[in-house]
Amino acid sequence: MAIPRRRHQHHHSRVRFLFPAIFAVSAIILFLFLFLSILAPSPNDDNHLRHLRRDDSSGGKGGGNEIKVPSSRVKISAGVHNRDLWSSKNSKFFYGCSNASSKFAKAKTITHPNRYLLIVTSGGLNQQRTGITDAVVAARILNATLVVPKLDKTSFWKDSSDFSDIFDVDWFIKHLTTDVTIIKDLPLRRGQIWTPHRMRVPRKCSDRCYINRVLPVLMKRHAVQISKFDYRLANKLDTDLQKLRCRVNYHALKFADPILKMGEKLVQRMRMSSKHYIALHLRFEPDMLAFSGCYYGGGDKERTELGKIRRRWKTLHNSNPEKARRQGRCPLTPEEVGLMLRALGYGEDVHIYVASGEVYGGEETLAPLKALFPNFYSKDTIASKEELEPFSTYSSRMAALDFIVCDESDVFVTNNNGNMAKILAGRRRYFGHKPTIRPNAKKLNRVFLNRNNMTTEEFSSRVHTFQRGFMGDPKEVRPGRGEFHENPSTCICEDAEAEKKMDWDHRKSGKDNVAKKKDGDDRKKDIEAVVHDENVDYEPEMTDPEDEEEDEDNPLGEVSLGSSKAEALSNGTSTDYDSSMSEDTELDELLSD
User: Fold this and answer.
1) Higher-confidence residue: 556 or 456?
2) What's CA 483's distance to the chain center, in Å?
3) In a 10 Å sphere around its CB, with 0-12 CB exposed, 13-18 middle and 19+ buried, how is residue 389 labelled?
4) In 442-520, where do the E strands start and end?
5) Averaged pLDDT, 4-13
6) pTM for the full predicted model
7) 297 by DSSP, 3-state: which?
8) What span, in angstroms and rounded, lies between the C-alpha atoms of 131 and 441?
C-alpha cells in the first residue's frame, strides 16, 4: 500500500507545478501578440483595397462632388490565379471563317438591273458601321444594286463626313463585287436626277420582312431609300447571309488612308513605350450618364445637371438608380475599372490607352484611375495638335482613330456595353480571340460595394470568379446569344483537332489530369452560370433625342406575299402587289432569283 501512496504524492506535486508554467507561457504568448499588433499595419492600410469615396452631400456649393484620392496607391498583387494576362490559352484552335458556300450565287447572276437600294445610316461611327454592314445584306436579300450608303450628318453627333472620308470606298465596292453589286451614285433616269421612294422598316426586320415589305415597293418604284438604318436587320439569318455580314464588317470596311496612317502612328507610339498595352474604351460623358439614369454620388449638383440632360429624351422614364445598378445597367466608374484590372493581375507598370469623350467630373474623376495606372495615355497625349487637326472637328474620324488603337491593343477593356464595345468584341473574336474584358457589372456591383470589408486576396478572387465568361475567351458565349456583331459565332471555325489537342494537354500527367479535369468542370459551370448573368438587356448606347420613333421589334403589320406571286417577283415583271395574299410564300425561290 505504500507504493501507490508515494505515486499519488508524486503526481500531485507535478500537477501543482504545472499550473504556474502554463500561466507563464500564456503570458509570454499574450505579450508577443500585443507586440506584433502594435507593429502590424492597420487593416485600412495599403495592403487592403480602399473605397475611394465620393461624398454624397447635397449641401454647399460643390454639391459634394469632391473625389478623395489616397496619398498612396492601392497595392494589388498579380499572378495569383496563374492566368496569361496578354493572350487566351486556346485561341490558336479557333479562326475567322467567312467564305461563301458553293450555293451562294454570284451577284451578277441574281442582281436585277432595275432595282436600286439606298440607305441612310444613323448614329455615331460604330452604329453606322452596323448599318452599312446590314445594308449590304439587305441588298442581297432583295437582289438589288446597293448605292454606297449615306452617313448620318444631322443627328446628335453632327458630323459632315461622307462615306469616302471615313472608309476606302473603292476597296469596299471591289471587295464585295461577287456578293453584291455596289455603285457610288444612283444613275440618272431619262436624263434627269432620280428621286428614290423613301420608306422605313422596323428594327430587326427579318429576310421575310424585307421580301414582304420592301420588295413590292422596290419593284414598283425601282429605287427605294430606307432612312434611320440602324439595327434594321434581324440578328439571326441563314449561314451564308451571316458570313456575308462578316465579309463586310471585317474585310470590306477598311478605313480611308489618312485615318489608317494616323491610327498606325498612334499604335506605334504605344508600342515604343511598352511591349504590351491595354486600351480602355471609357464611356463616362455627361450625356451617357444622363441617358443611363444612374447616380454616382455627386449630390444635388449631379442630379440637377444630369437630370436636365436626360429630359432631352422625351420617351425615357423616371430613373431608378439603385435598380439600374443592381441590374448591371450602370457604366463602371474610371476608379472601378482600375480596381477591376488590378484585381485581375495587371500591375501599375502597365501602359493604358484611354479612348473617351468628355469625362463627367474631369480630372477629379480620372484621378483614381491614374493613381492605379500612372502610365496613362490618350490620342491627345501621344499626338500633336497639328497631327490631329485634320480629324479634330469630325467626331467619327476621331472615333476611328480610337477604334484602330483599341483594335490593335493586347487587351481591350470597356466600362459599358455600347456599340463600339460590341463591334470590337466581335472583331477581336474573329481575328484570334484577343483578350477583351467586359465587366460583369451586375455581379461586380456587390463586390465594389463591399470591398472595404475584404482583403486583397478576397477581392481579387471574387473579381476573377465573376469575370469568367467576360474575358474574350473562345466559346465563353453560346452561339446565337447577344448581337451578332458582338458574337459572330457563325464566322468562327474550330480546328478539327482542337478538342483532341486541348484534351491532350489535360492528359499530360496522371494526378494533374484529375485536378485539371475538376478545374475544367468547375470553370465550365462558372462560365455557364455567368453567361446567364450577362447584361444582355443593357443597351447604353445613346440614341438621337430627336429620333423618338416607335418601331422597336414590331413587324408593323408586314404584308405577306402568296406563292402565286413568287414567280412574278422572281422575274421582276410585277409592278404591284396584293395585300390580301396568303402567307405561303416560297422564300427560297424569292431569295435565289
Assistant:
1) 456
2) 10
3) exposed
4) 492-494
5) 48
6) 0.76
7) coil
8) 28
> Going by DSSP bridges, is the β-strand pair 492-494/94-96 parallel, antiparallel, or unpaired?
antiparallel
| Alpha-carbon gap, residue 6 to 517, rounded angstroms | 65
19 HSE (CA, 13 A, CB side): 4
pLDDT of residue 481: 84
Helix intervals (H) in 279-332: 286-292, 299-310, 321-326
- What are the two backbone dihedrals, phi and then psi, of residue 403, each rounded to the nearest 5 degrees? -60, -45
Decide if 176 contacts 136 (C-beta within 8 A): yes
Greatest Cα pair distance, the chain, in angstroms, is 137
Tens-digit pLDDT profile for residues 506-531: 444 444 444 444 444 544 444 444 44
Spatial separation of the C-alpha atoms in residues 92 and 97, rounded to whole Å: 14
Q: Are the CB atoms for 50 and 74 separated by under 8 Å?
A: yes
Residue 72 to residue 70: CA distance in whole angstroms: 5
- Residue in 48, 28, 24, 45 with CA at minimum distance from that of residue 36: 28
Q: Which residues contact 392 (CB under 8 A, 6 or more apart)?
A: 385, 398
What is the Cα Rg of the chain in Å? 31
The residues, ordered by sequence, that sit 6+ positions from 346 with a Cβ below 8 Å of its Cβ are 78, 85, 278, 373, 411
Mean pLDDT of the region 11-28 = 56
Amino acid type, 492: I
- Judging by beta carbons within 10 Å of its beta carbon (0-12, 13-18, 19+), is residue 245 exposed, middle or buried? buried
